Amino acid sequence: MKVLVIGGGAREHALCRSLSLDPEVTSLHCAPGNAGIAEVAELHPVDALDGAAVADLAVRLGADLVVVGPEAPLVAGVADAVRERGVDCFGPSREAAALEGSKAFAKDVMAAAGVPTARSYVCTTPEEIDTALDAFGAPYVVKDDGLAAGKGVVVTGDLAVARAHALACDRVVIEEYLDGPEVSLFAVTDGETVLPLQPAQDFKRSLDGDEGPNTGGMGAYSPLPWADPKLVDEVARTVLQPTVDELRRRGTPFAGLLYAGLAITSRGVRVIEFNARFGDPETQVVLARLRTPLAGLLRAAATGQLATLPELRWSDGAAVTVVIASHNYPDTPRTGDPITGLADVAAHDDHAYVLHAGTRTAQDGQIVSAGGRVLSVTATGSTLAKARERAYRGVARITLDGSHHRTDIAAKAATPPHQ
Ligand code: AMP
Ligand code: GLY
User: Fold this and answer.
1) How far is the CA of 59 from the centre of ligand 2 (A)?
2) Which of 37, 56, 82, 198 is the most exposed place for a label (fewest CB within 10 A)?
3) 49/73 same-domain check
4) How many domains would you assign to the chain?
5) DSSP label of 33
6) What atom of ligand 1 comes closest to residue 148's alpha carbon?
7) Would you say 70 and 15 are in contact if contact means Cβ atoms under 8 Å apart?
8) Shortest-distance atom of ligand 2 to CA 277
9) Same-domain pairing of 67 and 23
10) How far apart are CA 107 and CA 121, in angstroms?
11) Residue 12: which CATH number?
């Protein structure tokens, strides 16, 4: 099978790595990719947001399957453009991707499908904003309606900060604060059949102890030893399947990866948000544990064949990933800094590897930082504690001037009584 992956972050590197290990994949391509993906796939300098260019590339390569990684091309209709040219594509249509592209649309779908989520108001005027903030009280949760790379959400006890963020958005969702641990649960779906993957937990704040601003994600681990073993079945039944059924009912079936960001509150599971694609950095740990070959799974979803697949197979072990971010991320990150020690990680440990996000190869051949989240070190082990130790040993081998990472990824979950 010839596969073309669209995107160029750590998620796409994780996807390409898994696809490169799948014996069914005979040739692997990525556009635009990054310096790390270049080691496992042939790169093509095509703009991921340009549907016609992506579709042309897929046809020219004779791709059997295109996998669209990030949300922006999905919301821009890139998967539709590929399918229109007769190429199978893993990734929802533009209309179905609105589940991520518009928080107000997601709330509407959830209400229609009876999916539990935070109560919310959609506001467009200062009066509506003040009424909503007043109705819920602190802590305030204020969300820009559109895509904002994980940074459009402000959760604060400070009314003035909440109000200022709300006023800066064209359309804003103000909602009830959800208390409790967060879980990311992905499901592969063909628009009808829903196959949940293993749950993971992401660390969204930039600093240890969940301090600092929200980021795109600073690390993740899987499995979740503290979670109820029935969680996945419950979420599949109460959240994932009803959402997929509702989108099909509306004539805009969702085929691709449905990502539910959940809060486990004292009153039960609630959806914080939906995403229309694999999450980053959770994908790094979920795919590290998936034993079922990835290409066949994604193609089955793209072609409406998921019901015919045997049950997914998983490693019993654990995986941990730690993101190394550049100086000043998530504000204005500094780029162009040289990175060293990349090859040392896997050279010293068969169970650890580096996935590139914001990297590029400079003219002198040196790999340098090119974005906010630069790379993630991923490791597996029989327990979370072992996987965690390996991931941090890998992080210690890498140098990137001014970089920072969290030191507490999976720390609580890896500590008894969970392990
Ligand atoms: P989102 O982009 O919707 O995932 O929000 C980013 C982060 O903000 C989430 O991962 C949560 O940590 C936090 N958040 C979002 N909505 C809520 C809520 N209703 N209650 C508490 N925290 C929230
Ligand atoms: N891990 C958060 C996201 O992918 O949106």
Assistant:
1) 30
2) 56
3) yes
4) 4
5) -
6) 2
7) no
8) 4
9) yes
10) 9
11) 3.40.50.20
Residue 386's Cα: distance from chain center in Å? 24
Residues 15 and 5 sit within 8 Å (Cβ to Cβ): yes
The CATH code of the domain that includes 243 is 3.30.470.20
Mark whether 244 and 207 lie in a shared domain: yes
Q: Is the CB of 380 under 6 A from ligand 2?
A: no
In the chain (419 residues long), the average pLDDT of successive 10-residue segments reads 97 98 97 96 97 98 98 96 98 97 91 96 94 94 77 88 92 93 97 98 96 93 96 98 98 98 95 96 98 98 98 97 97 95 95 97 94 97 98 98 97 81
Pocket of ligand 2 contains residue 202 by CB under 6 Å: yes
Of ligand 2's atoms, which has the minimum distance to the CA of residue 282? Answer: 1
- Kindly state the tokens that stand for 216: 């795109």
Compute the distance between CA of residue 84 and CA of residue 174 in angstroms, rounded to an integer: 37
Q: Residue 123: which residues within 8 A CB-CB, separation 6 or more?
A: 129, 131, 132, 166, 171, 172, 173, 174
Q: Is residue 43 part of a domain?
A: yes
Question: Which domain covers residue 247, as residue numbers?
Answer: 182-282
CA distances from 210 to 181, 204, 206, 217, 408 (A): 12, 8, 7, 11, 9
In a domain, 107, yes or no: no
**Core vs surface per residue 241-261: b (16+ CB within 10 A) or e:** bbbbbbbbeeebbbbbbbbbb
The two structure tokens encoding residue 112: 């229609």
Q: Establish if 87 belongs to a structural domain.
A: yes
